Amino acid sequence: MAQKINYKIKKSARAKSVRLSVSARGEVVVTAPRLVPKYFAERLVEQKRDWILRQLQKMQTKRPQNADPRLFNYSREQYEKYREKAREFCAKRVAYWATQMDLDYNRIAIKNMKTRWGSCSIKKNLNFNYKIIFLKPEQADYLIVHELAHLRQMNHSPAFWKIVEEYVPNYKKNRIELNKIF
Ligand SMILES: [Zn+2]
């Protein structure tokens, strides 16, 4: 029997035709104008079955070999299970790196982000993806140094990367690895 393909229908007032996409997290989405009947979506997914499976396959092989499988679980339950642990971890590591870098920050928030590792605001608030705890220690440190460096440089200019490099000399390797995850 052929593999069943799960997909989501997104009704859009602006869509002019039925469109198919596979998101970075491996979700198959059919975007359709509001009045298009459901069997249209079903038929499209069936017609494009081979293409969809190829996209999903590609996504799997792009994943780094020894990455923690929890990095690719997007469930709410997993987030709730690990949120506190991530909060404790970030509190400790951010405090450590902020001292090293002689920077101060305001607040740390843990978020369940699908395609982002972290962010930093003008108000000096730092956000981290809870999945930081599933990374290798040096990858997590790179991520924290990256966001802290934004407190000095709110961009990705050469000056910004110079700050990062000062504290994480092999930052490029970590950056590439993280980009492969999402
Ligand atoms: Zn950045």
Strand order of the largest sheet: 1-3-2
Q: What level of helicity do the residues show?
A: 40-55%
In this entry the ligands are: zinc ion
Q: What is the class of the largest domain in the CATH system? A: Alpha Beta
Q: Using the 3D structure, state the CATH architecture of the largest domain.
A: 2-Layer Sandwich
What is the percentage of strand-forming residues? Answer: 5-15%
CATH topology name of the largest domain, in short, is Zincin-like
How would a textbook summarize the main sheet?
3 strands, mixed
Indicate how many domains the architecture comprises. Answer: 2
The number of distinct helices, counting runs of at least 4 residues, comes to 6
State the end-to-end CA separation: 31 Å
* Number of beta-strand segments: 6
The arrangement of helices and strands along the chain is EEEHHHEEEHHH
Question: SS-based structural class?
Answer: alpha/beta
**What is Rg?**
20 Å
How would you describe what is shown here?
Helices cover 46% and strands 15% of the residues. By secondary structure, it is of the alpha/beta class. The protein has 2 domains: 7-62, no CATH class; 70-181, Zincin-like. The strands form 2 sheets. A 3-stranded mixed beta sheet has the order 1-3-2. Strands 4-6-5 form a 3-stranded mixed beta sheet, with helices on one face. A hairpin with a 5-residue loop joins β5 (118-120) and β6. The mean pLDDT is 92. Bound molecules: zinc ion. Zinc ion is lined by residues 146, 150, 156.
